[in-house]
TrEMBL record, chain A:
Keywords of this entry: Hydrolase
MF terms (GO), sorted A to Z: hydrolase activity
Coiled coil spans: none
Domain AB hydrolase-1: 35-260
Domain of life: Bacteria
Pfam families: Abhydrolase_6 (PF12697)
InterPro entries (UniProt xref): AB_hydrolase_1 (IPR000073), AB_hydrolase_fold (IPR029058), Carboxylesterase_BioH (IPR050228)
Protein name as it appears in the record: Alpha/beta hydrolase
Natural source organism: Sphingobium nicotianae
TrEMBL record, chain B:
Source organism: Sphingobium nicotianae
Gene3D superfamilies for the chain: Luciferase-like domain (3.20.20.30)
Protein name according to UniProt: LLM class flavin-dependent oxidoreductase
SUPFAM superfamilies reported for this sequence: Bacterial luciferase-like
Top-level taxon of the source organism: Bacteria
């Protein structure tokens, strides 16, 4: 699988990394304290703005999750629980002992899986609009079902700003369209059922002991207030912030502000 | 060519309601007494088909006003007892949307017993929009289909000790069918194809291959099947290995037949009424298929909706007219496609009422079916002509 050139990630180096036989693409950018960024449903390219900001202060490591973007998938990687172990292997390989770990949306769930397994592997943790906890209880839905939405509706609900090119897939060139289709397939693979969560995760969250910041977009149209409260209960020591003028894709709507928050929090 | 009577058993009163006919249609739009009346009516028409010497095909769908049969095997368990001679085809059981393939095998065996060995079984993937009801994983759909297939065939054909099954997707401590199927090693298996490449897979296995409403594409589907079958078994498949599904409306005069066809055509429009996000759930189609479809400006394959009955006839989706007309249209289509031995006939569709259905079925059975039985095989040279 060849890495495609992605204009908006030009500020860093995108290259392939072999993690125990699985080829994944990894963006490296900037210098400073190490920071591992775990992207959301919009893929690595969807996080370009926040990654560019973070690269001003950190040595950023940003992989495409297995099955997403230009990263291969592998038999046996079926759950985000599996991705937790996968990333511990990758962190060992890269010598990332305890980086700042930032996860957005789906990537927030991945971050929680990693750190419930090895709590000492982060200097600080920032979860922006994270999935992972139970998204529904019988007839009560706490997180909107992205798989039931039209592309138009999903595009509109993911952020407060206008839907970007990633939400308007019909106009993407072929290589970018292929990445978008792989992102969708991987989101379905890991998040179809139980919907965007690991029912075991709540019972494991107490293991996360590093300084933790949870950030929500004040106008998130995907994740409900009840779910945000559940996250606060699961991580009672975490700091919680809400960013105005931001929807679910806080990293898209308010990249500078989110980066400033992360830099400030990690620097304490 | 032999005929299999088929109806989707629509709850057609809902067709008047605007919007989707699948997935999101609220169940409060169904009057259950009306549903019961219609279901019994459709069963009566199937029993008539049996009396008239036709075979029977049943399908299933979920959360759809277009098809009230939610289980092939529930419907067939009634017909297994209430019919005498008809072969009973389930086309099909949506394996990748089913959570319990052993239960599927049990139901097949039970209905085969009840019917005295008249069951034929279509094993199909399942409709993508029904993943929203089954909630089965969209990715790995085909892997799951084939593991379920292997288990069902192994269970039905087993003449030895009970066995256990620890697969990738399915796990059973003991597989034991009580009762077991009459037909050995198992009831005939059917699969469906809409392209030459999927038909080749069925040809290699020697299963009966049906294609639905595919018009001019049917020829390529059958070609693909024949090539793969011949390569695998060293001889051409019999026509009985191939089937084609279309709507048929017959009457003793052309005007009346067209009137009936008009009542049936709402099948095409309503079948297509499904919100686009449900037609292609994320992870269902391979990435390359999605890329190809989007670049081609196509949002997925939909059943064509035409302006006139003549357009449907021209496309090979409807055969309409007097018994002579229907015979001639079918004979011509038979030759165009290289020949097929099974006509899966929507003898009732859409809003066609009981009286018209009875009359149409009776005419077809008495005046068309005997002539179709004598339809000559298409010579090999003709089959291979003009195949691009």
């Amino acid at each position: 699988m060849d890495t495609v050139h992605i204009d908006e990630l030009d500020f860093g180096t995108l290259s392939m990394l072999d993690v125990r036989g699985t080829q994944i693409e990894l963006l490296r950018a900037g210098s400073g304290a190490p920071l591992l960024f775990l992207h959301g449903l919009d893929g690595l390219e969807g996080a370009a703005a926040i990654l560019a900001e973070l690269a001003r202060s950190f040595a950023v490591y940003a992989p495409s999750h297995p099955g997403f973007g230009g990263s291969a998938s592998r038999d046996g990687l079926n759950r985000v629980d599996d991705l937790g172990y996968f990333y511990l292997d990758m962190m060992d390989q890269l010598g990332l002992d305890a980086p700042v770990v930032v996860g957005a949306s789906f990537g927030g769930w991945v971050a929680a899986e990693i750190l419930t397994k090895e709590p000492r592997r982060a200097a600080a943790l920032v979860l922006a609009s994270p999935f992972g906890l139970r998204t529904a209880e019988r007839r009560e839905q706490y997180v909107a079902d992205i798989f039931m939405m039209s592309r138009k509706e999903l595009g509109e609900r993911m952020q407060v700003g206008a839907p970007g090119p990633l939400q308007d897939i019909m106009n993407l060139p072929e290589d970018r369209l292929r990445r978008a289709m792989r992102n969708d397939e991987a989101a379905s693979h890991f998040g179809w059922t139980p919907y965007m969560c690991n029912p075991q995760l709540a019972d494991r969250m107490h293991r996360i002991v590093c300084p933790t910041l949870i950030v929500w977009g004040a106008e998130d149209a995907i994740i409900s207030p009840a779910y945000r409260e559940a996250y606060a209960r699961a991580l009672p020591l975490a700091e919680v912030a809400s960013i105005a003028g931001a929807g679910h894709r806080v990293h898209g709507d308010q990249a500078q502000q989110l980066a400033a928050r992360i830099t400030d929090f990690a620097g304490r | 060519m032999i005929i299999w009577q088929f109806s989707e058993q629509a709850y057609y009163p809902a067709f008047q309601r605007p919007g989707a006919m699948r997935v999101t249609l609220p169940q409060n739009q169904c009057d259950p007494r009306e549903a019961g009346r219609l279901l019994n009516r459709y069963l009566d028409e199937y029993m008539l088909a049996d009396e008239l010497g036709l075979n029977i095909m049943i399908n299933e769908h979920h959360a759809a006003a277009t098809c009230m049969s939610t289980s092939c095997m529930t419907t067939l368990s009634i017909l297994a007892r209430q019919t005498q001679k008809a072969r009973l085809l389930a086309l099909g059981i949506p394996l990748a949307n089913r959570s319990n393939p052993l239960r599927v095998a049990e139901e097949i065996a039970m209905v085969d017993c009840l019917s005295g060995g008249r069951l034929e079984v279509g094993l199909v993937k399942g409709a993508p929009y029904e993943l929203f009801m089954s909630n089965r994983q969209p990715t790995g759909f085909m892997d799951r289909f084939w593991e379920a297939h292997d288990l069902i065939v192994a269970a039905l054909a087993n003449e030895g000790d009970n066995f256990s099954w620890q697969g990738e997707h399915f796990h059973y401590r003991t597989v034991s069918l009580w009762p077991r199927a009459i037909q050995a090693p198992h009831p005939p298996i059917w699969m469906t194809a809409s392209s030459a490449s999927s038909a080749r897979e069925h040809g290699r296995l020697g299963y009966t291959c049906a294609t639905f409403l595919s018009g001019a594409v049917a020829r390529q589907v059958f070609m693909g099947y024949r090539e793969a079958y011949a390569a695998q078994f060293g001889q051409q498949p019999g026509l009985d290995r191939l089937g084609y599904l279309a709507v048929v409306a017959c009457a003793d005069n052309r005007a009346e037949a067209y009137k009936r066809a008009e009542a049936m055509r709402s099948y095409f429009a309503t079948a297509a009424r499904c919100d686009p996000q449900f037609r292609n759930p994320w992870g269902f189609n391979p990435v390359e298929a999605n890329v190809h479809a989007l670049l081609g400006g196509r949002g997925g394959k939909a059943i064509p909706v035409y302006d006139s009955i003549d357009d449907y006839i021209k496309a090979g989706l409807m055969f309409v007219g007097t018994p002579d007309d229907v015979y001639e249209q079918l004979a011509a289509f038979h030759e165009e496609t290289g020949g097929f031995g099974n006509l899966l006939m929507m003898g009732q569709a859409g809003e066609l009422n009981h009286e018209d259905t009875v009359d149409s079925l009776t005419l077809i059975a008495k005046e068309v079916a005997p002539r179709l039985k004598e339809l000559p095989d298409v010579p090999l040279e003709t089959r291979y002509e003009a195949v691009g």
